[in-house]
Amino acid sequence: MVRLPVLSRKARLAAIAAVVAVPAVALPIAFAGRDSGLPGTGGANDGSAYAFPATPDQIPDTPVRVNQVGYLPDGPKRATVISDAQQPLRWELKDKAGKVVASGASEPRGMDDSSGQNTHVVDFSSYRGTGNTYTLEVDGKASLPFDLDPKAYQQLGIDSLSFFYPQRSGIEISNDIAPGYGRKAGHTADTPNGGDTKVPCAPGSCDYTLDVTGGWYDAGDHGKYVVNGGISVAQLMSSYERSPKAAQARALHIPETGGKTPDVLDEARWELDFLLKMQVPDGEQLAGMAHHKIHDVAWTGLPTDPAADPQQRQLRPPSTAATLNLAAAAAQGARVFAQYDKAYSEKLLGAAKKAYAAAKAHPTMYAPDSDGVGGGAYGDANVSDEFYWAAAELYITTGDKQYAGDVSDSTVHKADVFDRAFDWQNTAALGRLDLATIDNKLPDRERVRESVVAGADRYLKIVSEQAYGQAYAPNGGYDWASNAQMLNNLAVVAAAFDLTGEHKYRDGVLSGMDYLFGRNALNQSYVTGYGEKASKNQHSRWYAHQLDPKLPNPPRGTLAGGPNSQLQDEVASAQLRGCKPQMCYIDDIKSWSTNELTINWNSALAYVSTFVADQT
Ligand code: 9MR
To answer: What is the dihedral of CA 250, 252, 257, 263, to 10 degrees?
Structure first.
C-alpha cells in the first residue's frame, strides 16, 4: 500500500499527482495509507483518528489478487491469480523501484467454486524483505501495491476497536476525539422522540418504562439489541483477556483514554451498563429476565442522525436468549473488572447470577423471527448454546460447582461446536473457547482444549483448500455477514495458537486475513480505509456520505458484512442476480444485506486483528 505522511492539503495533492506508476495496472491516482491521517472522502477533518484517505470510486481491475494492506515479513505471503492457463505462470515480486526481488512459478488450482473463476496460487512466503509499495506481477499483469511490514496490523487493532465510540448512543460524540465524526448525543431526553430515558414496553407486554440510555447502536440502524450486544462486548473483553498487557498498551480514541482501566474495557463498560439496564426490575413478574431489544416502532429512512430519530421507541418482550447473553457477558465482565473496579465487578456478577436463574425459570421464551419491524428480529429458538455459554462464564468467574455441573450436563458440552461459524445466534463456541483458554478446574478441560484445536485444524484445512485462502466454505451459498463468520473461524485458529504455540495456526490466521483485504474474487478490501479498493459505503443512517456528501463515510477500520448469496435487499437482487457466492457483494449503502456495518462484525475484526497485531 502506498503511504503518504501527514501533509497539508496542498502537499497531499502534489504527492498524489506524483505517484509511482504501477506497470500494467495504470492506477489513475495514488492512495494514502491507513495511518496517513488524511481526510476521508466524507469530509472528515485532518487528524489522526478515524479519517481515511480519499479513494477514487473506480479502481482498474487486475487478475492478481493480493492483501492490499500488507503481509508480515515473517508470515505467509500468498496471492491468487485469475487465469485459464493450465500450466504454471511465472511470477515476479517487484520492490518500489521496480526491481525484481523474488520470482517463481504459480500453482494452477483450476475452477474455484466460490467464485466461478479459474485460479492459480502464488506463494512468495520465502521472501523476507520489508518495505512499502511492492507489487506482484504475473503473466505481465501487476497487483495493486502492498507493504511487507511487521507492523502491518498495528493500526487496525486500534481502529477496529475505536469504531465503537461513534456507535455510542446517549453521549455526544466529540469531534476532537473522532475528527469528522462529531455529532449530538442520540436518544437522550431532549431528542424528538424523547430518547431512551423512559421507554415503554410493547403494548400488553408490561406496564413499566425503563431508562435504557447508552449502549452501542447495533449497526446502521438505531436499534439496540441485547442479543448481539452480548457477543460483541464479549469479544472486546476476550481481546483484553487473551493479552491484558497488550490491551493495556493499546490507546483507543475514546474519552476515557488514559485512566487506569484499559481502554478496551472502558469501551466494553459502555455496553455492559446498557445490558444491565435492559434487565427486568425486581418486583416485576419476569424480574431478572432481559428485554430482547429496544428500537423504533417503524423503520426510519437513510440518512437519519441518531439525535433526529422521530420514531417512538419501544422495549420488546424479554427472551431467554437475551437473558443468557446478559448472564454470560456480565459474568465475564465481573471477571475482567475485578482488579479495576471491585464494586462494579460485584454488581455485574449479581446481575449475571440473577439473569441465569431467571433464564432457568423461563427456559423457552423465544424471540420470534417475525418481530422485524423498526428493528432487526434477532430471533432464536434454540438457546442450549446460550445456556452453555452463560454457565461456562459463570463457572470460570466463580468456580462454583453448580455452574460446572450445568456445563458438564449440557448436551452442547461434548458436541462439535465448530462444525459451523459461531455468531450472535450460535454462541456455544464463546463458552468453549473461554473454557479452553482461561484458567479453570473443569475435570475434562484437556478434552475441551483438544476440541478447540480440532476445530482449528478443520478451519486450517479450509484455508489451505480454498484458492483465495478464506477460512470459510459453507455448504451452499455465503451467509449474511460471511466476513464476520470467517473472522470468527479465525478466532478459533488464533485460540489454537494460544493453546499450542504451533506456528501453523498463527500462519493460518494471517492467510485467512488476506481474503478480507483484497485477496478475493472481487479484488475488494472489506475494511474501510485499508487497501486501495476498500468498502466505504456501508449501510448506515449517519455515515451516509453516499447519499449526502456532507456526511462522513464509516470510520477507518469498519468491516462490511460481505458477500451474501441470498440477495436479501433490492440493490443486491437487482444487481447481483445469479452471482457465485463470493461475488454477491456490492459497496452500496442501500445493500444492507451485503454491506452493513455491525458491532458484532467489528468485534470479530477487533479480536482477530489485535491477535495479529500482538504477534509482532
Ligand atoms: O446479522 C444478522 C443476520 O445474521 C440475520 O440473518 C439478519 C436478518 O435477521 O439480521 C442481521 O442483523 C441485523 C439486525 O437484525 C438489525 N441491525 C443490523 C443487523 C446487521 O444487518
So the answer is: -60
b vs e for 419-457, b when ≥16 Cβ sit within 10 Å of the residue's Cβ? Answer: ebbbbbbbbbbbbbbbbbbbebebeeeeebbebbbebbb
Compute CA 51 distance to the chain's CA centroid, rounded to the nearest angstrom. 18
Number of residues that this document lists for the chain:
616
Interval 112-125 mean pLDDT: 98
Q: Rounded distance, CA 407 to CA 390, Å?
A: 9
Among protein residues, the one with the nearest Cα to ligand 1's atom 16 is 376
Is there an atom of ligand 1 within 6 Å of 478 CB?
Answer: no
- pLDDT tens-digit readout, 191-249: 999 999 999 999 999 999 999 999 999 999 999 999 999 999 999 999 999 999 999 99
Whether cis (ω within 30° of 0) applies to the bond prior to 303 is: yes
For ligand 1, the distance from its centroid to the CA atom of residue 378, given in whole angstroms, is: 7
Expressed in angstroms and rounded, the spacing between residue 598 Cα and the centre of ligand 1 is 8
Cell numbers for 602: 467489528
What is the rounded CA–CA span in Å between residue 418 and residue 489?
A: 8
**Alpha-carbon radius of gyration of the chain:** 24
Q: Nearest residue CA, atom 12 of ligand 1?
A: 376
Q: Residues 305, 186: contact at Cβ < 8 Å? A: yes
The answer on pLDDT for 311 being more than 80 is yes
Q: pLDDT of 351-383, one tens digit each?
A: 999 999 999 999 999 999 999 999 999 999 999
Set 539, 545, 569, 614: catalytic member: 539
Q: Is 587 tagged catalytic?
A: yes
User: Phi-psi region for residue 139, left (φ > 0), alpha (ψ -120 to 50) or beta?
Assistant: left
The three grid cell numbers given for residue 86, joined into one nine-digit string:
493450465
**596 in catalytic set:** yes
Q: Is the pLDDT of residue 66 over 60?
A: yes
What confidence score (pLDDT) does residue 135 get?
Answer: 98
- The domain made up of 170-213+218-443 has a fold known as Glycosyltransferase (1.50.10)
The angle that helices 599-613 and 503-516 make with each other, rounded to 10 degrees, is: 130
**Mutation test residue for ligand 1: of 293, 373, 378, 591, the one with most atoms within 8 Å of CB:** 378
Alpha carbons 273 and 184: distance in angstroms, whole number = 20
Identify the pLDDT of residue 48.
63
CA angle 423, 166, 291 (to 5 degrees): 50
Give the residue ranges of DSSP H helices in 263-416: 263-277, 320-337, 342-361, 384-398, 401-409
- Any ligand 1 atom below 6 A from CB of 378: yes
Confidence of residue 26 (pLDDT cuts 50, 70, 90): very low
From the CA of 157, how far away is ligand 1's center (Å)?
24
Q: Residue of the nearest CA to atom 4 in ligand 1?
A: 480
CB 219 near ligand 1, within 6 Å? yes
Instruction: Determine whether the shortest distance from the Cβ of 598 to ligand 1 is under 6 A.
Output: yes
Counting ligand 1 atoms within 8 A of each CB, the residue from 169, 216, 218 with the most, and so the one to mutate, is: 218
Ligand 1 atom at minimal distance to the Cα of residue 539: 21
pLDDT tops 80 at residue 52: no
The domain segmentation of the chain, as residue ranges, is 170-213+218-443
